[in-house]
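Continuing the series of single-chain predictions for the mutant panel. This is the parent chain; the variants come on the following pages.
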Amino acid sequence: MDKVSKEFLEKHSDVINIKFSKYLRSFFYLFLIISYSIFAFYSLGFNKLTDQFKPDFAAKLIQDSYSYKDHINTKWSDTSDVTISYEGGAFTKYDPKDFPEWFLSDTNKHSVIFNNQGIIDIFKDRIEMKGFGDEEEKNLLLTFKLLNGKPTVEGYTFDDPKLPKWIRVTENKVEVRPSLFERLQVYSEKIEIHRFQFGWKYFFFDFASPFNKYSSSELFLLFFSSNRLDPEISNARFMFNEFLSNEQWFHGLVFSSLRDTIFMAVIGTLFATIFGLLLAFLAAINITPFNFVRFFIRRFFDSLRGIDFLIWSLIFLRAFGPGLYTGILAIAFTDTGTLGKIMSEAIENIEKNQNEGVESTGATRNQQHRFGIIPQILPVFVSQSLYYFESNTRSAVILGAMGAGGIGLLFLDSIMTGANFENVAYMSILILIVVFLMDTFSQWLRRKLIGNVFVAIVK
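Parent structure:
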């Protein structure tokens, strides 16, 4: 090392040491963060998520949200006796005289025609299917029979590698699933076929409704027709009643539950805004001179908002039981603490000149608050209250699922069944529409109220 380099190092050794220590400290913190991330990744089981994820089950649930299926059932003992039912329901069986057009029958066999033009034929002693799978497999003629009382695939062994991958053979069952829209299940005693189609069938009128056999144009004419189907009420009222009492989609129950959810959010937020504003004056240092009062009110706010609304809902669920009161009180308690803190800080940050100007006119203390403080904090108060109203509309859905009622409880019931995901999708769309409408309404109301406040202040 030459003399110049030594002199440079001696002259700037302090700076170099500081920079080196900063780099070393940065690398140490980075090492800690990476180490903790790796530890958390494995300790929380993120590395096993792929093992727990069931893509087939998830695909079936998603498919169920935008499609429906008809079940075709028969028994080996008498294949001439076929039943077709919507979604496999016991009370949604088609009349044999009015079977769907995709089901053909003659003296020798029954044929089920699928949307992909594949066909499953049911004979007395066997089942044949053709036109499924990829381009090469569509030419295969697959035959299913009973052998020693066990379902088998003719020409294939139990673990034959030539067997299409979408056929699964077990000791007591053969399951055929070429795609998400076709399914054949062959058992020792019965045969079951699932035929899927796009859409929400019977959305307006359920299976038993007298209106489900009419086309859209016929329903439109019938709506205004004076020839009543029910002599007691008009066709329009009859249609409306049938729509609300739909036993597949439960429109009446869904709408009433959605109304309860909105009511829960409105009343809960209203209570929180009223009590939060009143208590905020007691918590503001420029309004309340007593330290112990301010301390008590501020700790009260901390206690209310420190407990999550879900915990409050469990407490009130134990106290009052299931119902709207549980959700209303959970929202009111949580938001009183939050809005009270926000409003007390807004009161403490007001312009003193305006309040002093009102005081100089000889106004009483209440008048000073009314004309000197409230006009200044009202924009913040309105904006925050409306924001929490929007948020509480979503929160009320969660509270409903926890036992407070409303659409959240219906939502949870539909999810728990695992077979009514079209109802889940329907309620999700309704909830999103309500949230969008609430957001639009609150923005409009916020502009109107805050604009009027500023006009009043200027005047």
